[in-house]
Amino acid sequence: MNQEFELTREDGLTVLKVWAGRGAQAVVPEGVEVIGEEAFAGRRGLRAVTLPGTLRRIGMRAFQKCTALTSMALPDSLEEIGTEAFNGCSSLERVVWGEGLRLIRPRAFWSCIRLREVTLPASLRQIGSRAFEGCSSLERVALRNPGMEVDEYAFNETPYCSRLLALADRCTVGQLGATDACPPELVLPEGVTHIDLWAFSKSRIRTARLPSSLRTVGMCAFRDCKALTEVSMSPNTYCNYHLRLEPGDGIFAGCSSLTRVTLRGRLKNFTWYDASEPQLLRGFDPEKTFMGCTSLQSIVAWEVPLSAFPRALKPYALNAFLEDADRDLHYAPQIADAYHEALAAMRAQLIARTQRDASYALHQYLTSRRLIGAEEFDAILAHAAAHGEPQTVAALLAYQRQVLSPGGADALFDAMLGEL
Q1: What is the dihedral of CA 390, 411, 407, 400, to 10 degrees?
Q2: Whole-prediction pTM value?
Q3: Which residues of 307-336 are buried (b: 16+ CB within 10 A; e: fewer)?
Q4: pLDDT band for position 146 (cuts 50, 70, 90)
Q5: Can you list the alpha helix ranges (DSSP code H) found in 77-209?
Q6: Model confidence pLDDT, tens digit, residues 334-356
Q7: Least enclosed by CB within 10 Å: which of 1, 128, 378, 404?
């Protein structure tokens, strides 16, 4: 047995309790599943650590103040990094992130002052409060799972955060008219939890990506942003709660070019403001929030149940579902089932819609659910052909051949496909 390591069994896992070595390198043996609390903490001469492919968790303060540690490669087996695990690792410049990581706990990389960039894996589900706070060289952050839950101040006091906030400030009410440098895309850094009332009203932004950490938005925050076309945000945002909205005081009121709102991630339960169950966009007034948004067509929410939408917003969610030709990939079956049930009850409206909408996504949905009858097929096909939508026409001809008259339309099918 390697005498440098004290190993124990806890809760069925092999835990490395203490590293007793004195060198500049440590190779953690295969089979270790947990690096225990403070196992390497304070080893100022430790420069490199090799972690095993069996590791599942790095415990609290496991590498705290290992000030000579310059890089760390995390195995794909690693699922969790504990609170303050790398706090004060002042020489840490590079982290290779494993593709199985799910949770970074609070202050995990607090004051890693030489860490310059992080590209977090798609598997990551949560970043704890102040996880990267004080990383004074951190300039670039790439989040490959944009729907993850991010707690407050995750990237506070970093160049990454400061740069994005400085750009956003150019679009605030106080800066309007003072500069033409308002960026077309508003991107707020993860860790921001609140947008004040009137903050970006009448700005020139065209798209807005609001952070998953955002929890509250003040009234009129984006009012009359006439160029704004798309907004992406978390469904767990509380807006104007306990504030009475007058007409035109909604968050996006008057955004006449707004066409799409994307709600990233799952609906979660938060305890503040007397919430007893998850509520979509709590405090949003379904009528006033989007008052004057005459171009709004869809609210995309892959992971939010249709039942969570207020009645006034459900048509936008259904429309987003219909517009998504890859809906089977994007929507979980248990969420998609509710959409299918609602749309089946709207069959007549969907058939009527084909006379003004020749899109492939709509017709692909109707044919895949076998909602087109023989009596209306010819009119639908003629409209699609007249609007020059070859993919839609091909889908309709395949449907006729396979469903409406199997084996009887081969010649017509082949002839029309030859013209596409």
Answers
A1: 30
A2: 0.83
A3: ebbeeebbbbbbbbbbbbbebeeebeeebb
A4: confident
A5: 159-169
A6: 999 999 999 999 999 999 999 99
A7: 1
